[in-house]
Amino acid sequence: MNTSLEFAFAAQAGLALLVALPLALLVLVLAERRRSLPSAGGWHAPEFVRRVQAGLLVLCAPAVLAGAGACGFALLGSDTPPLEHPLFLGGLVLLGAVPVLALLGVWLQRRVQPVMLLSSVAPLRQVAWGRPGVLRYLVPLLRFLALAALIVAVARPQVATTEADVFAEGMDIVITLDVSTSMNAVDFAPPDSPDKKLARIDGAKSVIARFIEQRQDDRLGLVVFASEAYTQTPLTLDYSILQSVLSSVKTGVVEDGTAIGNAIMVSVNRLRESEAKSKVVILLTDGDDNASKIAPLQAAEIAAQQDIRIFPILVGKGGLVPFPVGPNLFGRMQYRNVEIRTNPELLQNIARLAKGKFYRSVDQKALEEDFQDILDQMEKTRLMDPGRFTRHTEVFQLLLLPALLALLLELALGWTLYRRFP
Fold first, then answer.
1. Residue 42: phi, psi to the nearest 5?
2. pLDDT, tens digit, for every residue of 212-243?
């Protein structure tokens, strides 16, 4: 499943109001000191030019932030080419306005006409400094930020999360696992630890779990069987669910027995509707068939007619093997050698009829090599796991709180520290 994020505005008409923001800010800055416009010098007075330049500087900061943010959202949150995304183009316009505003400030500086000519400025340096004059523009700046946040909120920004269908090269594999009580035999220890007591079922589950972890594009299913066969997981690309189901598999849940024919038919039914070129059944068992309602060889012929290949794996050594019989008086598990009947000839014939290959694994390492050899023989084809939906999340609420805080701070400063008197 491929997931992508995209940032967009649901109300394009509200977004159009952002075009008026630079003009609104300039009007606010100029109107802030409209009562104290210089009477001498007019538009060329130093005091007026300085205020206009401060307003232009205040304009540049939000233009850079808004432009960079718009371009970043368009590049990171959308698959649309940047030059075709309206948000990216709008960000370029805002960034392009910054040098224009800077040039306008330089042009105004050159047109300044002095109000008074002094032979020396030394006496002026002895005058005590008051509050920095640039801070008085904090009030209109907060008003502008509140207005900008409200306008963007009106445009209803949304984050769209899209989960799309995944097309991938892979195969369809059903793992068919024997869960009869004979799988509790403890002859599956690694070669480097012959004294270790490891049950066949635990060793097989461990190898299957690692096999699932290594898959990327293969659809996997799980069938378990004893005297009957049951589908635990249909074909899926959701390996986490498959791992969870596999971890809960244990012996003794299904009535004891070994129904290899039934297990093959249930697995074939899982693959019957598959469109993959490579359809595989990996059959893991440690015993002989003794409970099937359909002959295993007949089931193998049906699989071959459906172009389904079967790879039987005989788990364990066979013959006399250690088998747990219960704890002793001290709580330690006791083992007794038990004869477990196997039928490798039957599994070989199943592999021959279903165009597979027979394997015999006596430990975990051999079983892992058998799984890898099966993959090496298979041909991959293109398949799809269906499902597509897009979820839209409204994020305008994230702008309302900053707008409210900026407005409250602007009112507090306007009524106290930067209160104006006629």
1. 60, -135
2. 998 888 899 999 999 999 999 999 999 999 99
Determine the number of helices (DSSP H) and then strands (DSSP E) in the chain. Answer: 13, 13
34-43, 287-296, 384-393 — most confident range: 287-296
CA angle 273, 275, 278 (to 5 degrees): 110
Report the distance separating Cα 6 and Cα 4, nearest Å: 7
For the chain, residues classed under CATH 3.40.50.410 are 167-385
Q: Which of 238, 177, 239, 229 is nearest to 202 (CA)?
A: 177
Give the chain's largest Cα–Cα span. Answer: 118
Q: Are 278 and 172 in contact (CB under 8 A)?
A: yes
Q: What is the DSSP string of 219-242?
A: EEEEEEESSSEEEEEEEES-HHHH
Q: Which of 274, 296, 269, 293 is nearest to 285 (CA)?
A: 296
- Whether pTM > 0.70 for this model: the answer is no
Query: Does position 186 have pLDDT exceeding 70, yes or no?
Result: yes
Question: Considering only the top CATH level, what class is 167-385?
Answer: alpha beta
